[in-house]
Amino acid sequence: MAAPGAGPVVFIGLMATGKSAVGASLAARLGWPFVDTDQLIVARHGRISTIFSQQGEQAFRTLEARVVAEVLTDAPEHQVVSLGGGAVLDEGTRTLLAGARVVFLDADLATVRRRITRDRSRPLLAGDPVEAWLRMDRERRPVYELLADCVLDTRGRTIDQLVAELIQQFQLTQS
Ligand SMILES: Nc1ncnc2c1ncn2[C@@H]1O[C@H](COP(=O)(O)OP(=O)(O)OP(=O)(O)O)[C@@H](O)[C@H]1O
Ligand SMILES: O=C(O)C1=C[C@@H](O)[C@@H](O)[C@H](O)C1
Ligand SMILES: [Mg+2]
Description:
Elements: E1 9-12, H1 19-30, E2 34-36, H2 37-45, H3 48-55, H4 57-72, E3 80-82, H5 91-96, E4 101-106, H6 109-118, H7 129-147, E5 150-153, H8 159-170
Parallel strand pairs: 1-3, 1-4, 2-3, 4-5
Helix pairs in contact: 1-8, 2-4, 3-4, 6-7
Bound molecules: adenosine-5'-triphosphate, (3R,4S,5R)-3,4,5-trihydroxycyclohex-1-ENE-1-carboxylic acid and magnesium ion.
């Protein structure tokens, strides 16, 4: 694990582990601004599934890296950012994360199974979502672990519990 940085609080982790939900809730609790890079991409370029189907994954990754760089470059300390699950695949993004307080939301299949089978909007989980999620877990877990200043085990925990734990761990204060 990297030494804890002092930049924005940034959530990383696999699809459906709660990056958007926990990030938004933490920001609301602290009165800090919240940016979800997937939401920013959708606002600017349209639905993620459409980008994947019309332009392909690589085009999405290029747009994503650009948006993430814009958000993370000189980001204020009192800001919460939730990344898309695959954003860490970009080397430039990994470099920028060195200046952030990076939280890896860890989950197992039992925790996410209902979420990934109910919501079929994620293009990389089309087909067999369970098999795809497990494969990405194997491939990406080492990257998430390497980048993380804090690994938060989300199993059996409510969003409120996770927010409280982070506030305590990083000694975060309202602005
Ligand atoms: N700890 C939790 N307890 C209960 N429900 C949760 C928890 N964390 C997230 N959820 C719910 O699971 C679903 C997926 O969460 P969310 O969209 O935040 O995941 P994500 O990590 O942002 O996924 P993606 O990478 O696809 O953007 C949402 O409906 C969210 O409210
Ligand atoms: O894990 C991934 O590669 C992805 C996760 C989502 O957040 C979106 O960014 C997109 O669906 C790709
Ligand atoms: Mg999300």
